[in-house]
Amino acid sequence: MLRYLHFLRSLFSRYFFGFLQDYSFIDRSDLINLHHLVDSSSEHITRDFECRFSKLIGSGQSVSFASGRMAFFSLLQALNVKSGDEVLLTGFTCSVMSNAILRIGATPIYSDIDLISFGSDLESIKKNCSIKTKLIVIQHSFGIPCDVQPIANFASQNNIFLLEDCALTVGSSIDGIVCGNFGDAALFSTDHTKPISTLTGGLIYSSNLTLISKVRDIQQSSPELSSQKKNALYRQLLKESRFCNIHFYSWFKFYSIVKHKFFPNTNPFLVNDFSPYSHSQYPYPAKMPSFLAALGILYLNHWPKLVVQRKANLKLLLSELKKVWPNSFLIYSDPRLDIIPLRLVFCSDNGVLARNKISSFVDVSYFWFLKPIVATNFPLKQFHYIEGSCVNSEMIGRKIINIPCIFSHVETQLLLKLILNKFKSGADNDSH
């Protein structure tokens, strides 16, 4: 109910800042060219996108799918993960990751996060590993690299495959090494909320060419999404490119909520994987549509400018918000880390109060990780999550604040001004 109250307040705001990007770098001719590709399948375009993406990360290769969860599932298939195996991942995750593990017949086991990087924690991983652990999935959250090297050493010593979940992190590095190059493979998502957006999509990246060959074989044998689904995704691209900006976003979201509530079959996204069950109304796994791979190429061409813009926004936000929440941003000053942010993330002792204060102009419903295993209404025990097993993940959800870093410098200045006006007298003793 509180979520809808926040949303109704936003409809009467002059400006509303969401977490979906506006594709402002795509012009009309680009959209026309993409439309011509909607009902076609071009392996050349897909390979070009995969190659360009791989070069952002390192010397390995990538294989794309219609979603990150499908890429993850395909990796599990390539590794012959099966019933009786355990896959260890953080409780600070999305239900689609757990769904992929359950689909393969394995059991998801959850480790906690550390309170500094919001990423995977070595001691919790050690505590939850067993002789059945076939795979460890570690997460770099919010563009912030976790303390990955000790975890990589532990996995190697115990002969356990290590996957870096980089769905929320592209290009960030530790001591000059880009995230995705510490483990045996890395998972990336190109969902429209992620650092690089193709509306929906994902990739497996690895320097292990034998593994890449196995994943590519799965990709090649996977079907395409239906023409109806691809055309729905194209229409969604048109809408987001026109309306996902600070002037129209709240009304765009209102339209989307109403449409999908009363006409659920029109949803362009892959929305059947948020449960503990296997029942998709689309092929799973499926190839990434060629027009979305082409969109990814356009995005990658613009990526260097986005990196500069997002890092400048982070610097601007930190410079002022430190005055309101003085003890909340230590991770961003770690000299070992080069962080390419999508969101500035921190904890407030009274997260509910802070979220209420900014909900009239920031889409707080899109804050990540307000609870363990987000994006599901099913009881978490059905995903094999035991309440109280990931104390930090559960506690962080009550405190976490997300501030978007995706806007222009002028728009970010406006956002900062609105936040500071809400906290004129400080954060009401509301710092972590």
Can I get a quick summary?
With 432 residues, this protein is α/β, with parallel strands linked by helices.
Word description of this protein:
This protein has helices spanning 2-10, 28-37, 43-57, 68-78, 95-104, 122-128, 148-157, 209-221, 227-243, 249-262, 290-324, 351-358, 391-396, 409-422, and strands spanning 61-65, 86-90, 107-111, 133-139, 161-165, 173-174, 177-178, 185-189, 202-206, 337-338, 343-347, 400-404. The chain is built from 14 helices and 12 strands. Helix 4 runs parallel beside helix 5 (95-104) and helix 11 crosses helix 14 (409-422). By secondary structure, it is α/β, with parallel strands linked by helices. The chain is 41% helix and 12% strand. It has a domain at 30-221: Aspartate Aminotransferase, domain 2, CATH 3.40.640. Strand 2, helix 5 (95-104) and strand 3 form a beta-alpha-beta unit. The model is unreliable at 428-432 (pLDDT under 50). It has a 7-stranded mixed beta sheet, sandwiched between helices. A 3-stranded antiparallel beta sheet has the order 7-6-10, with no helix packed on it.
